Amino acid sequence: MKHNWQITLILIGMFLATQLIGLLVVYADPLNLEYVAQNGTIVQVQNPALSFIQSPEIENESDFFSKILPSIIIAFVIAIAFIFLLTKLKAALFIRAWFFVVVSMVIYITLIAFLKIIPIEVSLKFAVIFSSIVAIVLAYFKIFKRNILLHNLTELMIYPGIAVVFIPLLNVWTIIILLILISIYDMWAVWHSGFMQKMANFQIQELKIFGGFFVPYLNKNQRAQIKSAKLQMKKGKKIKEKKMKINLAILGGGDVVFPIITAGVIFQAWGLISALFVTLGATIALLLLFAYSQKGKFYPAMPFITAGLLIGILMAYLI
Question: Which residues contact 308 (CB under 8 A, 6 or more apart)?
């Protein structure tokens, strides 16, 4: 097992919580508003609070394959190349500013979704002002002030906000294709090029931020050493300073957001129960990966998560 059971369950708990929050945000449908027209029909319009998000019009099913999917793949390749270039240039200040803008926007989207479904009626103006202020404050402390608890709490809101932008652009078959392509890339980036490890190290060591869940912890021997040192200090003995390497349990943001996107697509196509099967499949697959992975080795999570997602999709389709 790569990490002890306590740390593993913490990561799995945060992963599952984010998936469920993501489904809640999808259900809220923050990109659209509904109102009753004079003739009594329900009309759906774009939410003015999220007017900066412009989804392309999809006229028929073939557009998902001929237009949307290629655009997403090209955008993904450009984003990876851009991140690689910035990492090589070590443009830490620019990357932090970029992270700040993106984090602010997606937390804002998630907050708009929450305010849309609470049982209290909230005006659009209040929703925009409140969500903007909270999102900017949270993003500032996340990016520029290091705090493990705040970092992980904000991660719960970041990935649902990202997912809700991409879900309308995909259908069941295109998300399956995208998952397979992402899994192939993940295997190459971890096992062949080592790009994922380099990017994670750069984020943690140089940027002091990380796109994903991040749990530092001490192993059993380290805890015993600290306990022994405290007992000696209580007895008045001098303790020689000693550096101690902290263990890190991490789960990348892509490993969290793609299951939310997948479950969201299935939710819109087949309903909530089907989406929960998908979420369950991804969670079990991730748990098995943590349980059977070995210490000191790096593993691409997406191939395993994708397997769980595809099993979940198949179960949902059969049931």
Answer: 281, 282, 283, 284, 285, 286
Phi, psi dihedrals of residue 158, rounded to the nearest 5°? -70, -50
Span of 17-26, 92-101, 159-168 with lowest mean pLDDT:
92-101
Work out the average pLDDT over 1-30. 93
CA distances from 176 to 30, 251, 261 (A): 24, 22, 11
128 domain-assigned: yes
Do the domain assignments include residue 63? no
Could you tell me the pTM of the whole model?
0.90
Spatial separation of the C-alpha atoms in residues 85 and 309, rounded to whole Å:
32
Count CB-CB contacts under 10 A for residue 83. Answer: 17
Can you give the residue range of the structural domain that contains 207? Answer: 5-33+90-318
Say how far apart CA 169 and CA 264 lie, in whole Å.
Answer: 11
Asked if residue 40 belongs to a domain, the reply is no
Per the prediction, the chain carries an average pLDDT of 87
Distance, in Å, from the CA atom of 216 to the CA atom of 17, rounded to the nearest integer, reads: 19
Strand partners, 247: 217
Residue 87 amino acid letter: T
**CA dist., res. 311 & res. 285, Å (int):** 10
Residue of 253, 243, 149, 262 whose CA lies nearest to 199: 253
Reported as type and span, the H/E element at residue 34 is strand 32-36
For strand 42-46 and strand 247-252, is the pairing parallel, antiparallel, or unpaired? unpaired
Nearest to 70 by CA among 163, 161, 177, 180: 177
Number of domains in the chain: 1
Q: Where are the alpha helices (DSSP H) in 118-171?
A: 124-144, 148-166
Domain annotation covers residue 155: yes
| Distance from chain centroid for Cα 81 | 20
